Each structure stands twice: as C-alpha cells, then as structure tokens.
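[Q] Does anyone have a clean structure-token version of this?
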Amino acid sequence: MHARELHSEDASGLFKLEQPFDDPLRKALFALMKRPLARLLCFKKLNSLYESVHNQVEAGQDFVDVVLDLLNVQVNINEESLRHIPAKGPVFVVANHPFGIIDGLILMKTMRMVRPDSMVMANSMLGMIPEMRPYLVEVDPFGTSESAKRNIGGLKAALRLLRQGHMIGTFPAGEVASLRLRKRMVRDPQWSPIVAGIVRKTGAQVVPMFFKGRHGPLFQALGLVHPRLRTVMLPRVNLKKGNQAVDVTIGKPISAAKTRSFATDEEAINYLRFRTHILRRIDRKKDKASDGQLEETPIAAPWPHDDLMREIRSLDEERILLRSGEFLVFETGVSRMPGLLHEIGRLREETFRPVGEGTGRELDTDRFDMTYRHIVLWDEENERLAGAYRFGRTDELLARQGIRGLYSSTLFKLRPELFERMGPAMEMGRSFICSEYQRSYQSLLLLWKGISEYVTRNPRYKTLFGCVSVSSDYTPVSRELMVRFLRRHRAVPDLEHLARPKRPPKLKYVKRLDISLPETAFNDIEDIGVVVGDIETDKSIPVLLKQYLKLGGRILSFNIDPDFGDCMDGLILVDLRETERRMLNRFMGPDKAATFLEYHGVLPADETK
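[A] Here you go.
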C-alpha cells in the first residue's frame, strides 16, 4: 500500500484510506472494507498519537524524542560505543531493521547524539509525516518501475550530502526482518549493494549499528502467507513496541579503504552486513566454564624469599641467556629448585585466573614441569619473578618417554610421523607475564630474546611448536572467528591429519549469521582483530597468538581444554628458517641470525625474505 493511498491532511486526520479505484464495483467493495481496514491499521490511534506529537513539536519540543517518549520506548546505548561515531567527515551508518518506523526514530536519535547534522535515508512513506521530512532522504523500496525513477533523486541527495561531509544512516535491507523458514531464523533480507556503491563513491567511513530484537510469531506467520501482510501489520506492531527497551550496539568505524578493497559492491555490502550482524553476539553468554563454575582453591602463599634467592644465586653462569637493565633472563630445570617451581606455579595461577584460565588449584604445576626446561624473566632490582616460559626438547623427550612425554599429547592425538617430519623441536607452553609487568611490551620481548638466544646456542632446534591459548573470557563467536581465519589462511594441510584434537571446538555462531563473505574480507589477523574488538570491547587478538603469527606460525589444530578453564588451545608450528629475516634479526641479532640460517643451509639470498 503506497503513501498516496494512506495520506491526507484534512480534518479527519493525517492517516486515512483514500479511494484508489475508479470502476464502480471496486469502489463499492473498498467502501465496505474501508472501516475494518482502518481499524486493522490502527489509524485512530495513529492520528491521536500524531495530534499529540504535532502539538508538542509546535511548542518547541524535539520530534524524535516526543514520539519515543509517547510510545514509551527506552533506547539503551553504551556511551562508550558512541565514541565510535566520527565527530566529523562523511559517515554512512548502516543498521539492521528489526521493527519498522521505530528503527528510523532510534537511528535518528542515536546519530544526532553525536552529529546534529545527521539524516536518514528511508522509505518515502515516512515523508507523509511533515515533522519527519527535515530528517529524511526519501527512497522508495517497493521495487516498481516508478520506484526506480523516484529513487534517482534520493540517491543523488545522499551522494551530495556525504561529499559535503555530513552523516547519513540507512537500513540496507529495505524492509523489516522476517522469518526465513528454511533457515528457521528471523533475519534481514539481502542488503542492497547500492548502499555499498554510495560508500565507495564518496569515500565515507561506515559505522555498523545493531538493534536487538524482532517482531513476534503472529507478524512472522502473516509474512509467510504473503509479504504484504507484514507491511499491513507494521503500524499495529510498532505501536505495541511501546513500553519496552531497545538495546543499541555501535561497532567501530570501517575505513573507506576497506570498503573499496572489495572487487564488487555485492562483496562490500556482504562485509558491511557481517560487521553489523556480528554485533548481535556481544550480549550473548560466554562458555559455561567462564561463568565461574570452576571451583577455585586459594592461591598458595609465596615461597620464603631468602630460600628463593639462594636458589637464584646458585645458577651457573652458562644458564644466563641475557641481561637488560634490571632484568635477567635464564634457563634452567627445576628438579633441584623447589622454590622457583613453587613461584612459577603460584604466579601462573595468579596471572591466568583473572582472564578465565587457570587450574583452580593453589599452584598451576603438573608432571611436565619436572621434565621440561624453563626460561625465566627475573627482576634483579626487586628480586622477584616477572614471567616465564616452559619448553621441552622433543628429541630428548620422545627418546625417553615417547609421545606421552609431551604436554600437547594431553590435548591432541599426535602421530609419530609429525615429529619425523618436524625434526628436533622445542615444545613451548605455559607462558605468562605477571600483571605488574604487562604494562610494557619489554617483558614479553625479553622472554622471546631469551628463547632466541637459547636457539642460537642449540641451533638444531629450528622448529617451535606448542599450544597457544585463547581463554574462555572471550565469547564463543570471537574464538570461532579466530579459528575460521587461521584455518583458512594459516593451516598446514599436509600435517593437520597428524594432530587431531581430543575435544574440538564447536563452530556454529558465524554460520547462523547466514552471510556469504568474500575471500578478501579478512586478509590478515589484524582484520579479525578489529571485529573481535567490536565484540569484546576490552580486548583484541591475544598478544601471544599475534607474536607467533608474526614469526610465521601456522596452525595444525584446535582443542578445548576443560582442565584449564575451558580455554581453546591452538597447536601452532613455527619453522624459524622461514621466519622473516627482519624478525630473526630483532630477536637473535643480525650476526647470530645469519649463523643460525647458515647452520641450516639457508643461502644469503634468503636475507631478502
């Protein structure tokens, strides 16, 4: 039903049905149905509401606020996320469309909290309300030949406003979300690529915005009978949306360079839709293990300081890997250093618990600590442990104990062929930096320089592998995004069958978004980090995972560890011969890096890598 059939501004009210027919029979039938249709469309209530709105606006009040107040719709917006809206420059806000006209009002309210110059590109039917016209760039979503002609003016206006540096918001779906019977989900229909075309032409930033909610089963059922029945019901169901709150989530801005990086407008709009709908996952519950179900014992008291210092002073000089300022980095076994092992276990647990990991025991130690080596970051000035890394020499461990001598065998089914193909390797794990030392990247850098120094002294270990953790403090959808990216871009297809997870993660959240993403959507881990940052708000990709990837790390498999706070472990492999030379130089130093590569027969020409 088009605007001309609804709109008249005479004494009988703004909303009424006009006679659309000329022939006598249809005119008579329409006259019989006019009153029941008007009741169905809630015209009496709409006109009463409009009269109240009109009077308050005439008295100087804001139109959008008045309507939302009269409908008693509360808009919940995280003030921190409002900062994601750029204060100046061309911006196109894209949002899902769960309700109808209320969406447009909420969108206008939210945008104008930051940018009073904002407008909404929306259904021209809304222009029948005089007070809404100043906020609108009008388009006709009905898809007729007349619609195309009318939309030319609206699209030109949108292009002009963005090029002038204004902000526009829109609903690229063009119609309200409805039930997709085959998918058994309520979703927006396909988004219009025209929106992406406008963005790419104007160089505007895009801000995704998600409104939580949907219409009830009656509305969805009528839509299955005929889509126009949904349209007819919109006034009634929007009026009933009163007396409730709508949660609004705002994502981080997407650069013009990103939207222009796609080959087509269709690819770009699918990416924008994904970035919008992924925001629905922010308020979802995390893994059950992250809800505090793990029973925790109080963490052990520190080891007596004087006894610990006697152990540190007893270290052989050859165990010292490097010194830097107040820090000392050394490697050692702990079979004869009970105090150091106690402090490592105590501080591991103290560091891991706040981020959803940890064992729940008073000390985070296990049987592998006694057979593995430890690289320790020691603060000499304050005489305390700042961090540590555990590593096992696979050639020695396999010879003595077989595969069960490796920590990773507790999480993955490892086949001997994996180690035959890798050769001598160092299995890395249980790394931590105490919270007081996490403010600076220097602590992790020194640990990695310590590892690199150990490798240069023992160059047969060309491969690092082990478990890198993504804690259950991350939402399941964030962890799934990391898994999907790493499987697509950093997998080792010819080795992954040699390392099978005992408890693989369930991947179901991204699939439910029902959005086909182009291959170029996520080219590197930073692309995923931006999306994870939208979902988590307080963190991005784990630092250690990014560090391994910078070294050229590749993923063999993923597993969920129920004994460690249900964290997700990625089994990662780094062949140091293939690490970029600038990274090796950074950690080993140019001369030692050259010696290491020469040991493995890597030619000088490879220095350009």
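[Q] Thanks! Anything notable?
[A] The first helix runs from residue 3 to 6.
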